[in-house]
Amino acid sequence: YKVRVDGKIVMEPKEDIKERLGRSPGKGDALLLTFAYPVTKRSDFPAAGGKQPNVISEYDPWA
User: Fold this and answer.
1) Residue ranges per domain, the chain?
2) Cα 49 to Cα 15: distance, rounded to the nearest angstrom
3) Where does the source fall among the domains of life (predicted)?
């Protein structure tokens, strides 16, 4: 992993791990997903009246 300048942790891309190990990191993927947070998709249009943008709650990042 790497730590960015803003302090966020960035995991090594799966393609780089595959190249380094010579195989897919199956159990590593599973472990990493246990720490993943759900991602909510925001609408592309700004909300009127200075309100927060609408959030689509049915968004499934794994679909």
Assistant:
1) 2-56
2) 44
3) Bacteria
Spatial distance between the Cα atoms of 59 and 63, rounded to a whole number of angstroms:
9
Positive or negative: CA dihedral 24, 28, 32, 33: positive
pLDDT of 47 above 60: no
The answer for residues whose C-beta is within 8 angstroms of residue 59's C-beta and 6 or more apart is: 39, 40, 41
Chain centre to alpha carbon of residue 19: 21
Q: What is the pLDDT of residue 19?
A: 92
Average per-residue pLDDT in the chain? 76
Helices and strands (DSSP H and E) totals, the chain:
2, 4
What number is the average pLDDT over the span 12-20?
89
